[in-house]
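Progress note, sequence design subtask.
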């Protein structure tokens, strides 16, 4: 059972609402060199086509900042400038019309620098994410360590509280300037640390939280790590926007992000496939068949559930809640809707016949009258 969503302020990022009860937003980040405007816009378009709703771009130097005027006006989705070390890059990004900023309090530490950025962001109504990463937090002070030691905290709790207080220190600078268009992230590679940090922060204010497991890894391990970390928090009602960080094409991050949300029934985008893990009863090449169906479903935008089962005996019953499905047997298969058999097909025709039925279902859904 999912917990109720945490109540937060709403923040507007270039027309995309985050928090305040809005649907959880899926983000990603370009891997292109931002100094190459054409390559960056090409990747932004690919991410947007995949369903990414906000894209972050690295702004590591002044040359990258100088390219933003050639990128921001042409982006199909709002853009966030990722700023480290040099606050003047944030000022240049704001001049270029950027839709949001991410500041790292671990390496932009001078309050006067933060204030300068906040003044301009406030003028332009551009939200700021205070993005804490465990790998770049300032050193812990002796007084803080002694305080936490007196509470007999664990190492995980110590690190998490340090991350939270680092963020709160920067948030106070913004609040003192009457700036409240704030998002917060508290990312770590270690899932227990990020879980502890986010749950602590969730109790201390009502700003929207951007969830992520930083440097999660390659697609296989990173997807699992992200699903555990993000999924746990989302199930607790914590989180307003997410990014799955993977060492691969960022389009894959968008796919995994939506799959996490779909698994918790928090968002619906495109088709969902149900497939049995196979067993001794399977008499067809179910792996190949399931992979072909999965690949085809990437082209389906309608939120339907499709099942591919390897047993004609139990398949329809086990996947009775699927909108449409196939139960494959030796030499033949059956196609069903909501558990009811609608067609029997030869093994050689199973994939093509299932595609035809999927297309027919999508057409039916698209032609349904919109509820008023």
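Output:
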């Amino acid at each position: 059972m999912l917990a109720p969503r945490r109540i937060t302020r709403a923040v507007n990022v270039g027309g995309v609402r985050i928090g305040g009860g809005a649907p959880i937003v899926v983000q990603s980040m370009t891997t292109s060199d931002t100094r190459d405007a054409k390559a960056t816009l090409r990747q932004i378009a690919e991410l947007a086509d995949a369903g990414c709703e906000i894209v972050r771009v690295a702004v590591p130097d002044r040359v990258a900042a100088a390219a933003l005027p050639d990128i921001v006006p042409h982006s199909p989705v709002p853009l966030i400038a990722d700023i480290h070390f040099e606050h003047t890059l944030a000022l240049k990004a704001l001049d270029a019309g950027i839709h949001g900023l991410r500041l790292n309090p671990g390496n932009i530490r001078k309050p006067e620098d933060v204030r300068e950025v906040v003044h301009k962001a406030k003028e332009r109504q551009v939200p700021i994410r205070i993005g804490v990463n465990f790998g770049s937090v300032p050193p812990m002070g002796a007084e803080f360590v002694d305080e936490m030691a007196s509470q007999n905290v664990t190492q995980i709790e110590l690190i998490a509280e340090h991350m939270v207080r680092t963020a709160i220190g920067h948030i106070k600078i913004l609040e003192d300037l009457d700036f409240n268009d704030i998002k917060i992230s508290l990312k770590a590679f270690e899932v227990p640390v990020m879980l502890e940090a986010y749950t602590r922060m969730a109790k201390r204010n009502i700003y929207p939280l951007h969830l992520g497991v930083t440097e999660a890894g390659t697609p296989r391990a990173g997807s699992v790590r992200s699903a555990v970390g993000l999924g746990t928090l989302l199930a607790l009602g914590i989180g307003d926007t997410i990014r799955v960080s993977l060492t691969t094409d960022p389009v894959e991050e968008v796919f995994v992000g939506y799959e996490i949300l779909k698994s918790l029934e928090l968002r619906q985008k495109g088709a969902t496939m149900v497939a049995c893990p196979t067993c001794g009863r399977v008499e067809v090449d179910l792996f190949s068949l399931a992979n072909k169906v999965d690949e085809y479903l990437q082209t389906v935008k309608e939120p339907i559930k499709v099942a591919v089962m390897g047993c004609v005996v139990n398949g329809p019953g086990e996947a009775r809640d699927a909108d449409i499905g196939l139960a494959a047997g030796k030499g033949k298969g059956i196609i069903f809707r909501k558990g009811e058999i609608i067609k029997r097909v030869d093994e050689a025709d199973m994939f093509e016949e299932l595609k035809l039925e999927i297309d027919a279902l999508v057409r039916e859904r698209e032609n349904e009258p919109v509820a008023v």
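The chain has twelve helices and 15 strands. Work on this subtask will continue into the next period as scheduled.
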